[in-house]
Amino acid sequence: MNKLRRMDRRLFTILLIVFVQMLGAAMILPILPLYAQREFDMSPQIIALLATAFFAAQFVAGPYLGRLSDKYGRVPVLILSQIGTAVSFFMLALAPNVAVLFLARILDGITGGNIIVAQAYITDITPRERRTESLGYIFAVFGLGFIFGPALGGFLSAALGPRVPYIIAGFAAVLVVLLTWFTLDETLTPEQRQANRSYGGGGISPKDILDNWPLMLILTIAFIGQFGMGLLQATFALYGEAVLFAGYEARIATLGVGLLLTIVGIGQFSTQSFLLRPALKRMDEAWLVVIGLALRTIASFIYAALAFPVAGAFGSLIFAVGMGLMMPPLQSLSTNTVADELRGGVLGVYQSTISLSTIVSTAIGGVIFALDPTAPFWVGAVLSLFVFVPSLMLVRQTGAQVHRASVPVTPLE
Q1: % of the chain surpassing 90 pLDDT
Q2: In whole angstroms, how far apart are CA 36 and each of 44, 113, 238, 255?
Q3: H helices of 306-410, where?
Q4: pLDDT bracket for residue 203 (50, 70, 90)
Q5: 69, 187 contact by CB (below 8 A)
Q6: Confidence of residue 202 (pLDDT cuts 50, 70, 90)
Q7: Spatial distance between the Cα atoms of 36 and 24, rounded to a whole number of angstroms
Q8: What does the alpha-carbon distance between residue 147 and residue 142 come to, in Å, rounded to a whole number?
Q9: Which residues have C-beta within 8 Å of that of residue 92, sequence separation ≥ 6?
Q10: Domains of the chain by range and CATH?
Q11: What's the whole-number mean pLDDT along residues 328-352?
Q12: Nearest-CA neighbor of 354 among 204, 227, 210?
């Protein structure tokens, strides 16, 4: 019982840290493209490259940060990455030119392993059979951050000026560093860290990934599925201003985009809090991936074909539910494809796959948007349809079932 209470306290602490982190990050999401456009006169194509710069840096650094946390502990790497995020937010607030904007996003990407390490931390303190549910808590916290963050960022930008939200986000990141330093216990003992350093040499090699068929399926689903998400990330604020809120003044458009992202947060939080656990009692993780993909596809078609605010709100809600049902099972399944000594490493590989997909999609997102503001969503919808093939293969590979009576996960072999 004492151990259970301790695990609950550590889980609560890491979720609180992630919430503060996400609140700051979500504040800048809806306003950064508009900030870049209005303050620095950047074109949609160059604005999209801001996101590309972040994910390119994260792609390179992600596996190393995850593996470093396996070798040297979760808490030190978590603190290091959070300091980088804080510095990057202050750089955005004080940026005198476009070059500093890009340097800030690159720094945040290089040190942006905080979420990877937080996920590894949760897998450390959670039994394998409850891993999907526990990772779902992180997505619930993401949702909470998106409930309050985008609307708060839009309001602060409209009321106090475009640079103020970045200063506040920077101080939120500093608070996260302090919370981590003073409240979070290390999950890996010195003996475990030494064993992790000795296990598998340098970690997960490209050959290890190619030889691991279940992991390859998961990474394929993640890559293609994320491509549509990257198109949305790169262009959603611009799409909102150009299409959903066309004809409205700039302040209303900024606030409207923030509110739509708040709906995403509400949908994601509700999914993790009320839908995921009952869904896990009804079916295995791989089937949840399929259902989540179906909902994301529907949402993309809504964005593309029904370009007015009410439809945008409805699409945002469906998209959030689909993401909430899909992503925690997919991540949990990835950790089941490797030995426990490589949990942080495989989460880093998974995140780098997400980052690589986002690099490509955000790099071309601005170009596609320049052709037609709804085109990124048409492309995302079609790509989502293609993901169903590897998703159904994953169902077959894992032997996933529907209408089961218990929660335990079927380990991948």
Answers
A1: 10
A2: 9, 25, 11, 16
A3: 309-335, 343-371, 375-386, 388-398
A4: low
A5: no
A6: low
A7: 18
A8: 9
A9: 28, 32, 101, 104, 166
A10: 2-398 (1.20.1250.20)
A11: 81
A12: 227
Residue in 170, 234, 256 with CA at minimum distance from that of residue 37 = 234
- Nearest Cα residue to 380 out of 315, 334, 331: 315
For residues 85 and 90, what is the distance between their CA atoms, to the nearest angstrom? 9
For residues 92 and 333, what is the distance between their CA atoms, to the nearest angstrom? 36
In this predicted structure, what is the pLDDT of residue 400?
60
How far is CA 185 from its chain centroid? 24
> What DSSP string describes 258-297?
HHHHHHHHHHHHHIIIIIHHHHHHHB-HHHHHHHHHHHHH
CA distance 224 to 215: 14
Q: What is the pLDDT of residue 4?
A: 42
User: Three-class SS of residue 194?
Assistant: helix
Tell me: pLDDT of 47 over 70: yes
Place of tokens 């490797």: 338
Predicted TM-score (pTM) of this structure: 0.70
Phi, psi angle pair for 305, to nearest 5°: -100, -25
- The rounded distance, in Å, linking the Cα atoms of 16 and 179 is 9
Listed in sequence order, the residues at least 6 apart from 332 whose beta carbon sits closer than 8 Å to its beta carbon are: 131, 132, 135, 285, 409
Residue 2's pLDDT is 44
Helix or strand (DSSP H, E) at 97? none
Quick one: CA dihedral 410, 270, 242, 167, positive or negative?
Answer: negative
Average pLDDT over residues 27-40: 81
8 A C-beta contact, residue 180 and residue 69? no
Is the pLDDT assigned to residue 22 strictly greater than 90?
A: no
CB 170 within 8 A of CB 90: yes
> Nearest 5°: phi and psi at 64?
-70, -40
Q: What's the pLDDT band for 99 if we cut at 50, 70, 90?
A: very high
Q: Which of 208, 265, 217, 256 is nearest to 236 (CA)?
A: 256
Residue 388, both tokens: 């169903």
